[in-house]
Amino acid sequence: MPNALHDMRNLLVTPPEMQAVDKDAAGSGIDSFSLMRSAGMAVSAAALRLFPSAARFVVFCGPGNNGGDGYVAAAALTASGANVALYALGDTGKLKGDAARAHAAYGREAISIELYEPQSQDVIIDALFGAGLARELPDQAQEIVGRVDQAGLPVVAVDLPSGIDGRTGEIRGASFTAVHTVTFMAAKPGHVLMPGRGRCGTLEVFDIGIPARLVAARAGGLGINVPAVWRQCAAGLDPATHKFKRGHLAVFSGGPTSTGAARLSAAAGLRAGAGLVTLASPTEAIPVNAAHLTAVMLKEIGNAADLAEWLKDSRLNAFVLGPGFGIGEKARDFALMLCERALVLDADGLTSFKERRSELFDRIAASGGQVVMTPHEGEFQRLFPEIAADGKLSKIEKAQAAAKLSHAVILSKGPDTVIAAPSGRAVVNVNAPPWLATAGSGDVLAGIIGAHLAQGMPAFEAAAAAAWRHGEAGRRTGRSATAEMLVENIAPLPEESAS
Ligand SMILES: NC(=O)C1=CN([C@@H]2O[C@H](COP(=O)(O)OP(=O)(O)OC[C@H]3O[C@@H](n4cnc5c(N)ncnc54)[C@H](O)[C@@H]3O)[C@@H](O)[C@H]2O)[C@@H](O)CC1
Ligand SMILES: [K+]
């Protein structure tokens, strides 16, 4: 990935990668206890900043280094004059290494965790498990989660709310729901994938002093979808250029009773910067489409022969196929003809290949075109059932596997949309408000991707930039968003200086 990944704010590092970074840091002579001290101090500072008048900080410490951070935080909070109670999960005599040292330095009594009784003014510091959580949260910890939830106490999480799997964002049995999470060096997939993301509260990524080059060396091409990921590819898109240079996007309409979805895509494509947009309509739907279009042009394309003739115009460079199109042979024939240019395959376009996916994947591999597929969860299951059913994989890993198999860029939709390329590169989109999940929203997204492809952006960047602009449009529109309002609120691509 280009420069964006060297900015640690945009990186996602998996727990195994982070463990390797820790080892490299120790190997390069950095004192690992000083890292733990920085981590614990950052947690203490966050807790005091957020809850300056807490009656009592209750620190839960686990059996590993996450617990070690907790002991440091407890010592720092005590030194600041705060009232602190510390509860340990497991036998503190079995603590090892830095965690044992942090426990010894704390020097006060650690109470056994089952004795914890919530008090109404408690602020919880959760240092039970972090990146090292390897299986379901132990029963004893699950019970404490229940007590804290029931009492409605605020939780500040160390690294991750205990119970959230840092690789997948899944909840391992139960988890705390934090108001604030302090993680170290870089965010983990579990902070941005659902349901984990919904339980982290605000996320603080604190630099504990591991050199960035050590983190970057282990990071495997995952990031957060920020403009820096695709801005360089968007920089050449000068709105003043001749309209054909801005590309000609074609969107395929369904029959007379299902034309609205394609018109939404077309309108979004025009708004997002395609130079020309044509709605390709079957004969029967021409009157209804004609009655609703102004800036978008209309072309009658009834069958594959019509399409073949139209494709002689090489300026037609990007296509959206699927919204409202209808499932079946016609969708398959059209899609296979379009793979060698730039194609967004969405909705019915995806479902049409449920039983015939290898035809599509082989054609994409052979054609060398720019293809983006935009499945929601159900469509993903239809097209990639074996990947969808693999419970061990995270949403990122599923999208990566699907991209590799299909040779296309996969935009896997949801509140935590993932964009993955066949190379394994992937980003998670984080700017989408919940109300973006409105009828027709996906059609708008497909149109924005199409506009980017028409302007010559490579498929990965086209999809990532579109997910981001779609999220921004949702924010600008507000809670009452309809798909038409989203189109109106697609903002220009951000300038070079935006981060
Ligand atoms: N560079 C870094 O990232 C640093 C990480 N630090 C902390 O170290 C943490 C990672 O430490 P660890 O690798 O020791 O991991 P954890 O402290 O998250 O937990 C690991 C311990 O719990 C056990 N365990 C895992 N799952 C369990 C389960 N379900 N039930 C019972 N026991 C279970 C493991 O055998 C191990 O003893 C991070 O979350 C962070 O808080 C800090 O100390 C500073 C440096
Ligand atoms: K934790």
TrEMBL record:
Binding site for AMP: K413, G414, P415, D416, T417, G442
Catalysed reactions listed for this entry: (6R)-NADPHX = (6S)-NADPHX; (6R)-NADHX = (6S)-NADHX; (6S)-NADHX + ADP = AMP + phosphate + NADH + H(+); (6S)-NADPHX + ADP = AMP + phosphate + NADPH + H(+)
Pfam families: Carb_kinase, YjeF_N
InterPro entries from the UniProt entry: Carbohydrate_kinase_pred_CS, CARKD, Nnr, Ribokinase-like, YjeF_N_dom, YjeF_N_dom_sf
UniProt KW Lyase keyword: yes
Domain YjeF C-terminal: 226-497
UniProt keywords, alphabetically: ATP-binding, Isomerase, Lyase, Metal-binding, Multifunctional enzyme, NAD, NADP, Nucleotide-binding, Potassium
Annotated (6S)-NADPHX binding sites: 65-69, 130-136, 159, 261, 324, 376, 443
YjeF N-terminal domain segment(s): 18-216
Record text on cofactor binding: Binds 1 potassium ion per subunit.
Residues reported in the UniProt entry to bind K(+): N66, D126, S162
Names of the cofactor(s): Mg(2+); K(+)
Entry EC no(s): 4.2.1.136, 5.1.99.6
Origin superkingdom: Bacteria
Entry function: Catalyzes the dehydration of the S-form of NAD(P)HX at the expense of ADP, which is converted to AMP. Together with NAD(P)HX epimerase, which catalyzes the epimerization of the S- and R-forms, the enzyme allows the repair of both epimers of NAD(P)HX, a damaged form of NAD(P)H that is a result of enzymatic or heat-dependent hydration.
UniProt xrefs under HAMAP family: NADHX_dehydratase (MF_01965), NADHX_epimerase (MF_01966)
Similarity remark: In the N-terminal section; belongs to the NnrE/AIBP family.
Subunit structure: Homotetramer.
PANTHER family for the chain: ATP-DEPENDENT (S)-NAD(P)H-HYDRATE DEHYDRATASE, ATP-DEPENDENT (S)-NAD(P)H-HYDRATE DEHYDRATASE FAMILY MEMBER
Name of the featured protein: Bifunctional NAD(P)H-hydrate repair enzyme
Species name: Sinorhizobium kostiense
Source species taxonomy: Bacteria, Pseudomonadati, Pseudomonadota, Alphaproteobacteria, Hyphomicrobiales
